[in-house]
Amino acid sequence: MCGIVGAVAQRNVVPVLLEGLKRLEYRGYDSCGVAVHADGDLQRARSTHRVAELEREVQDTALAGFTGIAHTRWATHGAPATHNAHPHFSGQSRGKARIALVHNGIIENHDELREELEAAGYVFESQTDTEVIAHLIDHLYSADLFEAVQAAVRRLEGAYAIAVFCQDEPHRVVGARQGSPLVVGCGQNENFLASDALALAGTTDQIIYLEDGDVVDLQLSRVWIVDAQGNEVKREVHTVQIHTGAAELGPYRHYMQKEIFEQPRAVGDTLQDIQSITPELFGDGAYDVFKTIDRVLILACGTSYYAGMTARYWIESVAKIPVNVEIASEYRYRDSVPDPRTLVVTISQSGETADTLAALKHAQSQGMEHTLTICNVGTSAMVRECKLSYLTRAGVEIGVASTKAFTTQLTGLFLLTLALAQVKGRINETQEHDYLKALRHLPVAITAVLALEPQIMAWADRFASKENALFLGRGMHYPIAMEGALKLKEISYIHAEAYPAGELKHGPLALVTDQMPVVTIAPRDELLEKLKSNMQEVRARGGELYVFADADTRITASPGMHVIRMPENYGKLSPILHTIPLQLLAYHAACARGTDVDKPRNLAKSVTVE
Ligand code: G6P
């Protein structure tokens, strides 16, 4: 959620910290801040604006130092205000700040700790749970920051990644993690911390992924890690190729638009050069796992959850294996009936979503050991936790609203469907060959749909003045309608709901007036005639239909019925193509309303808190 950067070096670290923050800003943008050790004092700058503003402020005040930490915030405890912005200091009530700290996560026992620290004389300046940690470390400090942090984290309940430094120890930054991501970047006589290796691109490619319970001592030429028990541990140093090219906008107005148009490439890359379907695409031992399992449980959040819902239609119809799809934050807390012969599939763009990770661990703790992830980040906790994986190759996705991650997830999930069907003997070679051919043609088919942008822009202008919209789909296009509604609401702030079209008459039809645009996904499939009847139900109540209809559906425009013609029906892969115009509709409606498309209010890209 929040983004953390820390550095200890022999040069001014402020540019590295700010560059890191810019790369992490998509994780949360309610406020940002930086603190350094300068001239024997702790100094900081904080802003409720974006990192670019903070950078101007820092330049004006010439803030500089060899040791520092920085943070971009997604507010949980306390409003997005400067006094709640990180870094938080402790010790200033004694006249001089001694501890500076940034935090990502939620401290569940913060009330209790706050009372205790107030009783010890600490005065709180913010409403955050974070300030509690700063004061706790200060309270426990006696000449060794590393020791104080180890003692402090033993008192914390909840999730955290923290970076701390101390006025008395100018060449040291200490980090710790439990449930929230934190990496170490190793340099030559300089070392770094960050919540994502992306933040350190261009600074170092030598990355250590800390594990839950780790506390790390960073000095100029030393990286020392202990585990939750205080024992020294060696963690592997990975050379990580981080693509910074994703940060360039090129000719596009927003990252979201760029990412929508990258989909032919992203889907093509995700398919790599797959010559044939084999379970080993998902990792060593996949054949044995696929042979053993007789049901699938999909766990995910947000857009990834809709990818899972689509996959259920595919897996049940092609591989004939029963599938359950669960919202991770619900699954982790509900009583369910575990079955060890289940393939547990997590879907995640980031691979760091706290609820999905916790749901995975919950499934594992229930004896379900066959785990697989469809994930976009190879170095993420999700990939490390799951036995099997398939990496989507969307590239870095910056826009908070997921686009290319979704279509590449669907691509990976269709491959999974085929691999499962093959192992279970549910498809023959000809079918396999035909499906592969259709998959390989996807980049071209998506390019053709992207060419519809001008027509969709004209529709988007009409949507911009509305406050509500309905999305209808049937069968495997119902999750696509849900994804379309989510896209519209999250970036344009138009309230949008999706329904399976057959359900319309059981409630939502009451909302239909001439003020209600009804977006309809109309592929030429076995449900088409039923869908046409549902569309008539809307027209009869004066509702205005905006229909994305396959070319061979014989749906034509008439008053109150607007039609954009899609290519011929694309069979089982049709949901991937029908996603594209809904992304463009949401994008252009948001542009017409003048919202902050890439950073919609109150949201964050990577949700690493519960
Ligand atoms: C956030 C993002 C969504 C994303 C969801 C799940 O809500 O804004 O775009 O779908 O998290 O994230 P994940 O990284 O697990 O796919």
TrEMBL record:
Location of the protein in the cell: Cytoplasm
InterPro entries referenced in this protein's UniProt entry, alphabetically: GATase_2_dom, GFAT, GFAT_N, GlmS/AgaS_SIS, GlmS/FrlB_SIS, Ntn_hydrolases_N, SIS_dom, SIS_dom_sf
Complex formation: Homodimer.
Pfam families for the chain: GATase_6, SIS
Coiled-coil ranges (or none): none
Primary residence: cytoplasm
Purpose of the protein: Catalyzes the first step in hexosamine metabolism, converting fructose-6P into glucosamine-6P using glutamine as a nitrogen source.
Protein name (record): Glutamine--fructose-6-phosphate aminotransferase [isomerizing]
Keyword Translocase: no
Positions of the SIS domain: 286-426, 459-600
Name of encoding gene: glmS
Keyword Nucleotide-binding: no
UniProt xrefs under NCBIfam families: glmS (TIGR01135), PRK00331.1 (NF001484)
Keyword annotations from UniProtKB, A to Z: Aminotransferase, Cytoplasm, Glutamine amidotransferase, Repeat, Transferase
Enzymatic reactions: D-fructose 6-phosphate + L-glutamine = D-glucosamine 6-phosphate + L-glutamate
Location of the active site: C2, K605
Lineage, broadest ranks: Bacteria, Pseudomonadati, Pseudomonadota, Betaproteobacteria, Burkholderiales
EC number(s) reported in the record: 2.6.1.16
Domain of life, source organism: Bacteria
Ranges for domain Glutamine amidotransferase type-2: 2-221
